[in-house]
Amino acid sequence: MDKKVTVIGAGNVGATAAQRLAEKELCDVVLIDIVEGVPQGKALDLTEAAPIEKHDAHIKGFNSYEASAGSDIVIITAGIPRKPGMSRDDLIGTNAGIVKNVTKQVAAFSPDAVIIIVSNPLDAMCHVAFEASGFPKSRVIGMAGVLDSARFRAFIAMELNVSVENTHAFVLGGHGDTMVPLPRYSTVAGIPITELLSKDRIDALVKRTASGGAEIVSLLKTGSAYYAPASAAVEMAEAILKDKKKILPCAAYLEGEYGINGLFIGVPVKLGAKGVEEIIQIKLTGEEQAALKKSADSVEELKAVLKKLGA
Ligand code: APR
Hints:
By secondary structure, this protein is an alpha/beta fold.
């Protein structure tokens, strides 16, 4: 393949993302993990599936970063996932150190890459990677909105018994309890769901979306969601690798857009070869703007925690 993507963390999200990247023949994949044998073993296993899955992507696993050199994209999933009863924010102490260390190595070997952050708490980890990499804001992007809106879409499709392909949804804000699903901009075959569902039903779907990650954690008990998070990261990578100019909700660094300054938070962005090529500003109602502000305040609080941790 003429493109190369490195995935850091060969755990549930990382290995699933590697599988999807390869099976879509988007790129060659370098899989890196701190645990010896795991990235090598998973890469070999995926390679042995290739003849059956009919793809020619090369997948290789390593414990060091040399092989990642010159990557077009680096997807960072390294870190610990949450367990039942934990919020994403509880991971900050452990994951900030991991993401900082990993990003420094990634940036040294792939100075022109676009970094996609998956590790949680997402918006705070984007800040860590932004500072540790020294990359421009266009090349550090967080995966959250694509996942949260996919969850909202899945619930809308189940509720109305329609194809998921007919659904479209927008979720803004931080990747946490304060996320801001936008029913007015969420549609089925172009029809806003506000015309198809009662307020009570919409409120229920919005609530389920905001706690979508926790719902999976409480079922799995030993870790957090990974199929949908991996799909979301790969959709972002595909938009960048193919220079699609695709508008997707992602965590991006705002400098005044939506009245927010100096913060990573979920907004619609245009993704192309250069990473975030534009931040799309949509009109929000007073209520929506207030919800986004509340969400931004909670990301700001995590930034303060990072400062205390010296991350
Ligand atoms: N360098 C490289 N890999 C690391 C490092 C490090 N410093 N520290 C941990 N890892 C690896 C672990 O060895 C493990 O294989 O990261 C991987 C994480 O995988 P899982 O434990 O399976 O977690 P996963 O479900 O993939 O979630 C990873 O993404 O969605 C978020 O909240 C989630 O922060 C979590 C991350």
